[in-house]
Amino acid sequence: MDFTIRTARPDDYETLGEITVRAYRDDGFLAFGEDDEYADLLRDVAGRAADAEVLVAADEAGTVLGGVTFTTGDGKWADIAGPDEAEFRMLAVGHEGRGRGVGEALVRACVERARAVPGCARIVLSTQQSMAGAHRIYARVGFVRAPERDWQPLPGVDFTLLAYALELGNTP
């Protein structure tokens, strides 16, 4: 690997926020465009870092290539995680980091963090149906679909988020 995974620093926040919005926008995952509320949430890395752990992948020069938000089930940023679970959200890799294993390394780092949480039985996530590349990463790491946990983020939103889970005692 020609990059490392580390906790995001304040000087990374703006860059990671833009990478995240750009990745979601360019891949067609922003439902209402770059100026919607979710885009603002994606940009607000400092807000996430205040209540969760934000990880970045950075190359040898310190350039941020991508990032992810990790939280436990009792955390403010948990969407579907229960009390004995961890969750990650907002996984994004910039164009410079694609094809280099950055996304998978960030997912694996979240799994490692979940294993370190006392009493944490599994790690979960939600993803859009069209995020096929991410689905392949999740499968490689050992996540399985948890369709009973699929959900709609807002009333009236015309898409369902797919849930995945990884039992921490059964990792390949």
From TrEMBL:
SUPFAM superfamilies linked: Acyl-CoA N-acyltransferases (Nat)
Keyword Transferase: yes
Superkingdom of origin: Bacteria
One example GO MF annotation: N-acetyltransferase activity
Keyword line: Transferase
Record keyword Cell membrane present: no
Gene3D superfamilies with a match to the protein in the record: 3.40.630.30
Matches recorded under CDD domains: NAT_SF
Domain (N-acetyltransferase): residue spans on this chain: 3-167
PANTHER family registered for this protein in UniProt: GNAT FAMILY N-ACETYLTRANSFERASE (PTHR13947), LD18367P (PTHR13947:SF37)
Protein name per Swiss-Prot or TrEMBL: Acetyltransferase
